[in-house]
Please model this.
Amino acid sequence: MLIKSILETKGTTIHSIRPDATLAEAVESLVDHNVGSLIVFENDQMVGIITERDILRACRGGGADLTQHTVRYHMSSPVITGSLDDRIADVMGLLTDKRIRHLPIVDQDNVIGIVSIGDVVKAQHHRLTMENHYLKDYLQHP
Model:
């Protein structure tokens, strides 16, 4: 099973933000879109990713004024990416090893979607459920 199957089901909507946007604007966008990350684009190029975790780190130890801090200084960069032909099991391992929850999917240097650890777990669960169903059916009806 490949990442492209997740994007075929989930869709390819990408929520983004500029690097000069404030963290307050990032929070507003995350909440408005009900997502956990935003791709940071500058001049139509991905330059980073800002996640809920990045914003929490900015607030740690004294509570940053989110209207005074910009995305540029708190985003993760360079960005770890995946491709349409990556196997879901491999992506699950990558997300676990790198301790990240969001993976932009890139094709020919263009960001074409994003998958989360939840998307990957859902796809694996679906595959295992279907496998289990077919095995039970096979055993009951030889």
Residues 117-140 form the longest helix (24 residues).
